[in-house]
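Supplementary Methods S3. Complex input for the calcium ion-bound model.
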Amino acid sequence: MKRYEEIGKIPYVGPNSKEPFGFRHYDPDEVIHGKKMREHLKFALSWWHTMNYCGTDMFGGDTGDKSFGEKEAMALYRRKADVAFELMEKLSIDYYCFHDVDVAPQGKDLAESLRNLDEMGSYLLKKQEETGKRLLWATANNFGDRRFMAGAATSPEKDAFCLAAAKVKSAIDWTIRLGGTGYVFWGGREGYDTLLNTDVALELKNLGNFLRMARDYGRKAGFRGDFYIEPKPKEPTKHQYDFDAATCCNFLRKEGLLEDFRLNIEANHATLAGHTFQHELRIARVNGVFGSIDANQGDPLLGWDTDQFPTSVPECALAMLEVLLEGGFTNGGLNFDAKTRRQSNTMEDLLLSYIAGMDAFALGLRIAFRILEDGRLGQFLEERYRSYQEGLGKKILEGKATLEECADYALSHDDFLIPSGRQEYLESVLNDIMYRG
Ligand code: XLS
Ligand code: CA
Ligand code: CA
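Predicted complex, serialized as structure tokens:
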């Protein structure tokens, strides 16, 4: 296999090629249904996993090395930025996402950390101008530092709340300067492990207050993109407040934040919540808050957030179907919140992992269009709910019928059959469309 240094831009080689450093399904400039694949998919590189994660797990330290021979902190982060943009170029990825601490070293105090971010922010801006790459979204890491051990916005200590505010403020400033179209709030340690030491009512109130402050600041400073909440049910805390899409919708509605906030749905968080990825996307969509995707997958046999590169084609196809039914991405995109396995510890593995994930989603996109063109699944749904298209059914659906009216109707219509749900047949139709033997 070729070495990282010998690999240039990854070409589209088509489904019949066995070239490992080639795309079999992702042809970035191919136009499908009026749009280039790169515009349908809006792939993004996740800075934390790609540029910083080196294979550490609960039982052992790094297996890889991303120091690129640099010793001095700022030089190292500049070098990482060079490599990140080089990777995007090689992989035809147009966007990236980062936490404040991913792109700049931590200083001896807050002021120095913010200065470092400012310096690196300017460097990123220069790299963007040189390459045309863009920021999809940014966020602040308000969970790693020990001062956030009891949460950030939901910490029992107001000093932690304010520290988080300072970091979010400058991360929003840089989102704006870099032209980012999203700003993400993943819960971090906003949650709890035991009610014995937790005032849930106060914490939730402050979470709402925090998001409102951030929204108000961002809008005042000129941010026109979407704010996102990223649901996750557990990990690091036992009970994360942003459990799943439905919980987040309820919170946003209660706090009056639906205008400005949408959801960033991650596949692995969906499965941790006991849902499918598609379920979470659908719940976000039907509530009008679908925003962006963190593309990855969990392992069905491991109960934690493994953040693997997404390679399950059926899952990617059903996710892309939701994106197409939504009319495509607007401010959002597909961020690979995924890391290479501990044993996949080389730069070549990084390329191969991105290629695997991008190809799975590209194939997913192609299949999702085929599902729509084929029409059988759509027609079945339409047929199944036909009784709501006219007469009393229509009135019910429009919210215009009364309980008495329905009760009267039932007196003369209580002898009816429910048509079969045909699940197995529908699953075989999906197979027909997906796999062409
Ligand atoms: C952690 C989250 C995190 C967010 C960004 O589980 O996925 O990486 O996406 O803070
Ligand atoms: Ca994520
Ligand atoms: Ca995750």
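The chain has 16 helices and twelve strands. The longest strand covers residues 134-139.
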